[in-house]
Design a protein that fits this description.
This protein is an alpha/beta fold and about 190 residues long. The chain has helices spanning about 10-25, 40-45, 45-50, 65, 80-95, 115, 125-140, 150-155, 160, 170-190; strands spanning about 1-10, 25-30, 55-60, 100-105, 145.
Length: about 190
């Protein structure tokens, strides 16, 4: 049976169970029990989480934690140029070290109301779009597939699927994301 690894920020923790349920006959699905966090954290855990396990398919999303603003400076935790550098570094390391399919999932949308209610954590649509554009550029350069989770939630109607904090997902939202991930990954498991 093939092995799928899910790496990502806190939204992945919600949809992981749905992915496992939908792909149970095709793959052993593994994800770290801790939040994948930002791109720097994924880079730090790269060997432990991915390379040493030599999976067939790796599905990665991050970005929301990179966008998280510092309370004192108001700057993103990981500046956009460093985000791009981190992405290039860990994706190239994966591709250089193991023979697997890597899929990049775009960061999901957030509600702008969070900007007004949670000082220091403003992640406006323009920020998400900018970080997603960087991820698309890197994925294109490295010939990596893009799973557009941003588009999935936007098309479905974010207000119905986001929790009141504007960044996490209701059970229905997690199920929607889980199905989107499973359906996107499935062809790569059956053909690799």
């Amino acid at each position: 049976m093939q092995q799928l690894i899910l790496i990502g920020d806190s939204i992945r923790m919600g949809y992981q169970a749905d992915v496992i349920r939908e792909l149970t006959e095709l793959a052993d699905v593994w994800a770290p029990t801790q939040n994948g966090g930002n791109s720097a954290n994924i880079l730090q855990h790269l060997n432990e989480w991915i390379i040493s396990r030599a999976p067939d398919v790796v599905h990665i999303n991050c970005g929301l934690h990179d966008l998280r603003k510092d309370f004192d400076t108001g700057e993103p935790a990981i500046p956009i140029n460093q985000y791009e550098s981190n992405l290039r570094t860990f994706l190239k390391r994966i591709l250089d070290k193991i023979n697997c399919t890597v899929i990049w999932a775009l960061t999901t949308p957030v509600n702008e109301i969070w900007h007004h209610e949670r000082k220091g954590f403003d992640r406006l649509e323009a920020d998400v779009a900018a970080y997603n554009a960087v991820a698309c550029k890197v994925a294109d350069d490295l010939d990596i597939a893009i799973n557009d989770l941003f588009g999935v939630i936007t098309e479905a109607g974010r207000d119905s699927y986001l929790t009141p904090d504007g960044v996490h997902f209701t059970p229905e939202g997690s199920a929607l994301l889980g199905t989107a991930v499973a359906e996107f990954v499935k062809p790569y498991l059956t053909t690799s």
